[in-house]
Specification:
166 residues; alpha/beta; Hypothetical Protein Ychn, Chain: A; 5-stranded parallel β-sheet; 5 helices; 46% helix; 16% strand; globular
Length: 166
């Protein structure tokens, strides 16, 4: 329970920072780390299994992509669901509580919107098999990769920054 409380606190702080940062104009010159950077490639390793928390993280990825696009940093984002998080993107939601259903519905809608914006989504087939998730239950915007770790290794070898979401 303490781990969930820490995650909830982290998310609240993250969302507050996001709200404050979007209230002002975000510019590349505001970030020392972005000086001289023309293109940003990021690989998001999603393993968060809590519907509300995963939704908040995906929405933060979306906002980050928008901010970097506004800054003309040409972002390329790959979001890969691995581990138990694969259950969150399945259309089979029977095991989830009623209060989680709305978060899962919003997650599907957000992923659809983000994929039209150019964000790439993947799902690990090893995780689907391990957790008994029917591959056909995954929304079509999400590409299947045989092994998410191999995808992660490949993207990192190509210079993508790793952003873990556990």
């Amino acid at each position: 329970m303490k781990a969930q409380a820490r995650k909830a606190l982290f998310l609240i702080i993250t969302v507050l920072c996001l709200v404050v940062s979007t209230g002002s104009l975000v510019a590349a010159q505001d970030y020392e780390a972005l000086k001289g950077v023309e293109k940003v490639n990021a690989f998001f390793d999603v393993r968060d299994m809590i519907p509300k928390s995963a939704l908040d993280h995906v929405m933060l990825i979306q906002e980050t992509f928008k901010q970097l696009t506004t800054m003309k940093k040409n972002p390329v984002f790959v979001v890969t669901f691995m581990g138990g998080s694969v259950k969150l993107i399945s259309s089979n939601r029977a095991e989830f509580k009623p209060e989680d259903q709305e978060h899962l519905k919003k997650l599907v809608e957000t992923i659809s919107k983000m994929s039209t914006d150019g964000i790439i989504f993947e799902v690990c087939d090893v995780a689907l098999s391990y957790f008994g998730v029917d591959p056909a239950s995954i929304q079509p915007e999400i590409k299947h990769v045989p092994n998410g770790w191999i995808s992660e290794i490949g993207y990192q070898a190509r210079g993508y920054s790793l952003v873990p979401i556990y």
